[in-house]
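pinging the channel bc i need a second pair of eyes. not urgent but kinda urgent?? the chain im working w is below, pasted from the shared doc
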Amino acid sequence: MPEWAVTIIVALITAIFSGGLFSIILYKIQQKDKKNDTLAQLNNSLAQINKELKLNKKDLVRLQLIVMIANFPDDEHEIMTIAENYFNVLKGNWYATSFFKSWLKDRDLETPMWFNDIQEKALK
């Protein structure tokens, strides 16, 4: 077989295998990119779900606080526990603040230190 024929055959075989290999590598890269995009979308979804869960928890604890103040105003220990959780732990500070302040004043109770700290930070 002439040398030029061997060169062409080798070139064709190399082109076929290198093109095929290139296609396989490209396919694998595309699959990995799709997986990375899917993982990024899942991470974004989870972050949004976590944010919503935190808001829902804060809403639920605020509701518990208001219900306790309205329906069970004599249960000071439970109200203080819920209030500390809402204001101090969950960093809540919405309309429940006025309910809580009024409840403290109506009961002639001393304002808890943790609540004073929160109020001072809110003013800054």
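so The chain has four helices and no strands. and The helical segments are 3-71, 76-89, 96-106, 113-123. — does that match what u expected or am i reading it wrong
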